[in-house]
Amino acid sequence: MSGEDYKAGQVLLIDKPLNWTSFQVVNKLRWEIRQAFNIKKIKVGHAGTLDPLATGLLVICTGKMTKQINTFQGQIKEYTGTFVLGSTTPSFDLETEIDNTYPTDHITEALIHQTTKQFIGEIDQYPPVFSAIKKDGKRLYEFARAGEDVEIKSRKVTIEAFEITKINGLNLEFKVVCSKGTYIRSLANDFGKALNSGAHLSVLRRTKIGDFDVKNALSIEEFIKNLPKKE
Question: What is the overall mean pLDDT for the chain?
Fold first, then answer.
């Protein structure tokens, strides 16, 4: 592809690595495209944030395709990952340390599979306080990191499919198909509560957005390697 192709608009599927923010991926690709084609300015954006501790599919739009970002953001998403039973963290994932532990002796495989059914369909979900949602002009994680209490309102999300695909001790591997705005970290936390225990998210990977599949995505390194080299 040429620089003009990127300006006209492209949809790029990138497999986001661990510990990168979605913003860092966008910045890196924008810089590499500008360097490769000697372009002063080009629009680049992503269609749906992934947390730094998550990997998987980022849909990146360039040029005029950035106008389609809202359309892509609204599409159904699929995730896989791991919940850890018996403990919680303030962020509902591994961003923060374990703050509480809970009994798990009463939890059976049958109870685990039965409990997933409670979360199918439209549910009320509270976003994590460690999230980028804005309240009173500040992001929620800013309140959380400052140790300030903040009231969080629930929001309606839709879980189309939720299954535990493997049970390995206290580690539950899962697959979830859900609507825009669903927090898998919150699902982990709520799932733990529903089991009369606790749980947090230890692994998260986004595998699909609408018809886009991570199987067709490139790593950042592969994308850069495919760009023309400057003489």
Answer: 92
